[in-house]
Amino acid sequence: MLLTLPDILDADALRQSRLLLDGAPWGDGRESAGSQAVEVKNNQQLPHDCEAARGIRELVLRGLDRSPRFFSAALPLKVFTPRVNRYGGDTNAYGDHIDNAVRALPDGRRVRTDISCTVFLNEPYEYDGGELVVADTYGQHSVKLPAGHAVLYPGTSLHQVRPVTRGARIACFFWVESMVRSDEQRRLLFDLDMNLLALRQRHGESAETTALTGTYHNLLRLWANT
Fold first, then answer.
1. CA 204 to CA 215: how far, in whole Å?
2. What number is the average pLDDT over the span 164-177?
3. Which of 12, 131, 136, 150 is the most exposed place for a label (fewest CB within 10 A)?
4. Which tens digits make up the pLDDT trace of 69-84?
């Protein structure tokens, strides 16, 4: 399931992120790449523990906590520590790759990368190119979103970032280990949850919505690993 999430960062959070990025110490993005990805990765990345990375990470995690749509779609068990990258100039692209299945957190714990997420930190008009292109059985999907918006997609997907030919593309990225490992099962739960929400908003609570809510939670109980 490929899903966009509007306004994970609001205007104030975006202003704070721009201030944090002013003079940020960009380094080689290949530092975090796996053995295959390092051959096609050509971007910059903030050091994990610099002030800008820590500040933006807090803003993004706070925004995710406020997003019921993110929780419904991802059903997060663990979230890999968000990182910040930049595409532009001579370091402007990331060729086709699939993310590592497991990532290690700084404390040694491991996160299975069921879901990939990118939060865009600057506006599309500030750069040319830089589209995130995700491939699935239906073809290729090109994603370039307004600042503060995010996209979720399966960690199993072949994907790339096309070359940035003007300006710079700046984004926050991370992975989620979901309570529900299967993308198909997560999609069914998300669709059920969103339609239940729409029914309640249109008609209020009823015996039918109560019964369907029970179905949702029984499916989650059946499929979830906590």
1. 18
2. 98
3. 12
4. 999 999 999 999 999 9
The CA distance from 108 to 113, in Å, is 15
The three state secondary structure string of 174-208 is: EEEEECCCCHHHHHHHHHHHHHHHHHHHHHCCCHH
Report d(CA 83, CA 79) in Å as an integer: 11
- Residue bearing tokens 């990118």: 118
Over range 130-153, report the average pLDDT.
96
Structure token pair of residue 187: 């999609």
Give the DSSP H or E segment for 57: helix 51-65
Please, which residues bridge with residue 166 across strands?
128
pTM: 0.94
CB of 99 closer than 8 Å to CB of 116:
yes
Report residue 206 as tokens.
């009823």
Instruction: List domains and CATH numbers for the chain.
Output: 3-178 (2.60.120.620), 183-223 (4.10.860)
Our CA angle for 58, 89, 121, nearest 5°, is: 25
Mean pLDDT of the chain: 95
Cα(141)–Cα(135) distance, integer angstroms: 6
> With bands split at pLDDT 50, 70 and 90, how would you rate the model's confidence at 34?
low
Would you state the pLDDT for residue 138? 86
Q: CA–CA separation, 127 vs 114, rounded Å?
A: 30
Q: What 3-state DSSP class applies to 42?
A: strand
* Alpha-carbon gap, residue 72 to 186, rounded angstroms: 8
